[in-house]
Amino acid sequence: MGHLNLPSSKRNVRQWRLLDLVSAAFFAAVLIFFLLLCTPLGDSLAASGRQTLLRSASGDPRQRSRLIAQVESGRYNTAIDACSADYVDYMPCEDPRINSQLSREMNFYRERHCPLPKDTPLCLIPPTQGYRVPVQWPESLHKFDVPVQGHTNPSLSSQIWHENMPYNKIADRKGHQGWMKKEGPYFIFPGGGTMFPDGAEQYIEKLKQYIPIAGGVLRTALDMGCGVASFGGYLLSEEILTLSFAPRDSHKSQIQFALERGIPAFVAMLGTRRLPFPAFSFDLVHCSRCLIPFTAYNATYFIEVDRLLRPGGHLVISGPPVQWPKQDKEWADLQTVARSLCYELIVVDGNTAIWKKPQGDSCVPIQNEFGLELCDESVDPSAAWYFKLKKCVTRTSSSKGEFAIGKIPKWPVRLTKAPSRAIVTKNGVDVFEADSRRWARRVSYYKSSLNLKLGTSSVRNVMDMNAFFGGFAAALSSDPIWVMNVVPAQKPLTLDVIYDRGLIGVYHDWCEPFSTYPRTYDLIHVGAIESLIKDPVSGKIRCSLVDLMVEIDRILRPEGTVIIRDSPEVIDKVERIAPAVRWTASIHEKEPESHGREKILVATKNFWKLPSASY
């Protein structure tokens, strides 16, 4: 085959042209790199790609993981997308669109059923269209001139903004019973309830004839099926701290109304599992037309109430089945169960029955009219995180220490005296006292140096996400606040100590969403945030810090405050994520007297809304 021989000069020209093209492509690539790195064009293109990633993250686990990795890196200075307006009241674990498809047996469908993280939308919950910063405490509580702890001149009006929760169903259906009604731009709360339409104040006065409500004997109360929690709200003037609960049901947002008023409450259902509290937590348990079938399923629900009620405590049931028409059998069965557990019937006043729980459990095998048995000693009475209800009676002897009414100090002495149940921790009493001193010092520093609103009417609903012995809450006891003390379910179960102190709280696993509505807390505090997502044995990360911060953002009110304490390395991670959840954050040194490698991040949730056309 013949070959074509080009002159050498032409070959050189072609070689130079090739080199020119390669060089030009190289310099063009460098130029584009610097344009993307150093100019708004790069930010715009990156943001555009990130928005595409955000939109697809909810539907594709791989895209979701990529987005979380990018947010954790802090390389993108844009916010996580807002959810659509359909999500303004989104509760991932109590989503009626999903839970309504589950079994009705024992109200299973109304309990917590959490989606996997990969199935949870990674977006920020928007406020309602007309949302405003909530009415401050104590104006949010009551209508009448009732003394309120920490306030010598309470307001004469009870009101919250209607547009913060524009749901009229309760006002329309229950307004004649004094629950609430709409008046101008407000919902107002006259303080009534189904069984006390003339007001909780008069109802409580009636209960005082039979129960030592005043004087500090009783401190912690549980209100089951609470409505808008007026009963718990009015007990505050007696220095009784009531935790109210109700399910997410057809009334819509009754717990959200309670929290908007500044009354301790959370969403729960007495169904197939124990409620998330330790044994013998409450000095008083109250049901006002809660419609819990106490004697059904071999008295399983009454047995659960008995587990939660402190020996020597009181149980109040108002409404069905107490002397209720066409419920003679249910009322007879309820009395039989109570007798089987040796409860003393104090009084039956109309449709209200009051019992007192005995100090011990020795009578159960002897005086048993309902076939009840004591639990085996191997059953932990305080295990209550996704723990199935037991059809056996909790032994008071199964918990170490003194915790009966009359055996523990009265309020407020019980707040500062180490409970005997603190022995769950090695050298528990010494640890308790050191923890109390530490938090008194820390809270003083928070108030003096971190420019927080603690102690003002701007802060009412507070959460401690990693409460241990409740030292943070105890140090704030003189402020006009209440604290939801959360003890992580994977950590030592110290919640019984918190209740023995006269404080309240719940068990929870922070790799799952919390059982509350969006925008319900003014201030959230968390120490050792990374420990909440780590396995305590292996040390491996169980879930994403981004997901946890998105959940904190969900339950925090606009303009609310987050305080996070952890190592400098973890605080750096949190600071990188904070802009993505639209927080304005600053980092501070720890208080001078504290030891260890800690820094403190203080963040404010920015007040933003969806565009008007999106609602």
TrEMBL record:
<comment type="similarity">
    <text>Belongs to the methyltransferase superfamily.</text>
</comment>
<dbReference type="GO" id="GO:0016020">
    <property type="term" value="C:membrane"/>
</dbReference>
<dbReference type="Pfam" id="PF03141">
    <property type="entry name" value="Methyltransf_29"/>
</dbReference>
<keyword id="KW-0489">Methyltransferase</keyword>
<protein>
    <recommendedName>
        <fullName>Methyltransferase</fullName>
        <ecNumber>2.1.1.-</ecNumber>
    </recommendedName>
</protein>
<keyword id="KW-0808">Transferase</keyword>
<keyword id="KW-1133">Transmembrane helix</keyword>
<dbReference type="GO" id="GO:0005802">
    <property type="term" value="C:trans-Golgi network"/>
</dbReference>
<feature type="transmembrane region" description="Helical">
    <location>
        <begin position="21"/>
        <end position="42"/>
    </location>
</feature>
<dbReference type="GO" id="GO:0005768">
    <property type="term" value="C:endosome"/>
</dbReference>
<dbReference type="GO" id="GO:0032259">
    <property type="term" value="P:methylation"/>
</dbReference>
<keyword id="KW-0325">Glycoprotein</keyword>
<keyword id="KW-0472">Membrane</keyword>
<keyword id="KW-0735">Signal-anchor</keyword>
<dbReference type="InterPro" id="IPR004159">
    <property type="entry name" value="Put_SAM_MeTrfase"/>
</dbReference>
<dbReference type="InterPro" id="IPR029063">
    <property type="entry name" value="SAM-dependent_MTases_sf"/>
</dbReference>
<keyword id="KW-0812">Transmembrane</keyword>
<dbReference type="GO" id="GO:0008757">
    <property type="term" value="F:S-adenosylmethionine-dependent methyltransferase activity"/>
</dbReference>
